Automatic annotation (TrEMBL):
Its main location: membrane. The gene is ybhN_1. It is a multi-pass membrane protein. Coiled coil: none annotated. This is Inner membrane protein YbhN. It comes from Variovorax paradoxus. It comes from the Bacteria. Keywords: Cell membrane, Membrane, Transmembrane, Transmembrane helix. It is found in: Cell membrane. GO terms for cellular component: plasma membrane.
């Protein structure tokens, strides 16, 4: 074996390990920063802030959480309309709910992607159909983000810390760019409805204008509901539009860092941007209550639903085998 071949073999062997080491090193750094920051927090005050939340506030936030999950669970129904598969409405919404709950807590690859493929494939859908449903659902979610974030950044810009190196004008420009991107999608759907595009062996058809508008309406409403959950838990101490804008910044930060559930990222962004308006203990108390209501409680329900679905699929396979 020549030296060149040995060198290539060494690179192919070492690179996966080096890449894995870099990923784990990044997560270790994040964990260290979180622990370091956590030591500076008076957790007794945070616990007191959570306990002090009125029952009516928690109930109102819980209702908005239920509305948000119910609305998000209909995203895959749009994919059903596009792909024409025949799964029932309740089944599709159940799969979407389970995937969304695991997506929030474990990340998009595990929750949003892996769970959808596993559950839908067990229900008889092919990989190509699942890919189209998944892609359309993700597109719906981020289209609403473009509009809501664009409007919030453009018309109600935040006072960002000096270290962020972007002022109000920069935020307004970013907001305008986001809204233009959403508008471009609407124009595409209006002018090229039904046109088929091929990307890496997958074919995609441009939806109709009415479908695009429905996507935008559903997703904008969902992002607004999520912002409402945190606003209720903060008991109106900060204007709703500012709470929503900070949430949207935190959502992108969580995606960029790839930290499961955005653990620590959400809190860090809120403290950085709203810490001057709300005492840190009360802010963290509201955010931890939000995590309990929007992340952990649905995860418990989704886990039970997933176990029930697996048991049902196992029984069906047993009957078929007989």
């Amino acid at each position: 074996m020549s030296a060149t071949v040995l060198s290539r073999h060494a690179r192919h062997t070492l690179w996966p390990w080096a890449k894995r080491g870099l990923v784990w090193g990044f997560f270790a750094l994040i964990a260290w920063l979180l622990v370091r920051q956590a030591r500076t927090i008076d957790w007794d005050e945070v616990l007191d802030a959570i306990v002090a939340l009125p029952a009516s506030t928690l109930l109102a936030a819980g209702v908005l959480v239920a509305c948000s999950f119910a609305l998000y669970s209909t995203y895959d129904l749009l994919g059903r309309h596009v792909t024409r598969h025949r799964l029932g409405t309740g089944t599709v919404m159940g799969v979407t709910f389970i995937s969304y709950a695991f997506n929030l807590n474990l990340g998009s690859l595990v929750g949003g992607v892996a769970f959808r493929y596993r559950l839908y494939s067990r229900l008889g859908l092919g990989n190509q159909v699942i890919t189209r449903v998944l892609g359309f659902s993700m597109l719906t979610n981020w289209l609403g983000y473009l509009v809501v974030a664009g409007a919030a950044f453009c018309f109600w810009p935040l006072a960002l810390p000096p270290t962020w190196k972007i002022g109000n004008e920069g935020l307004r420009v970013l907001g305008a760019v986001l809204m233009c991107a959403a508008l471009a999608y609407v124009v595409l759907c209006a002018s090229a409805s039904g046109r088929t595009w091929r990307v890496r062996g997958h074919s995609f058809s441009t939806p109709s204008l009415s479908m695009a508008m429905l996507q935008l309406a559903m997703s904008c409403a969902n992002w607004s509901l999520i912002g409402g959950v945190i606003w209720f838990l903060l008991q109106g101490r900060v204007d709703y539009v500012h709470v929503l804008a900070v949430l949207l910044v935190a959502a992108v930060a969580g995606v960029i860092t790839h930290v499961p559930a955005g653990l620590g990222v959400l809190e860090a962004v809120f403290v950085a941007l709203l810490g001057h308006e709300v005492p840190e203990a009360q802010l963290l108390g509201a955010l931890l209550a939000y995590r309990g209501l929007y992340y952990l409680l649905p995860l418990v329900v989704a886990t039970l639903g997933y176990l029930f679905t697996e048991a049902r699929a196992r029984r069906l396979r047993t009957r078929t085998a007989r």
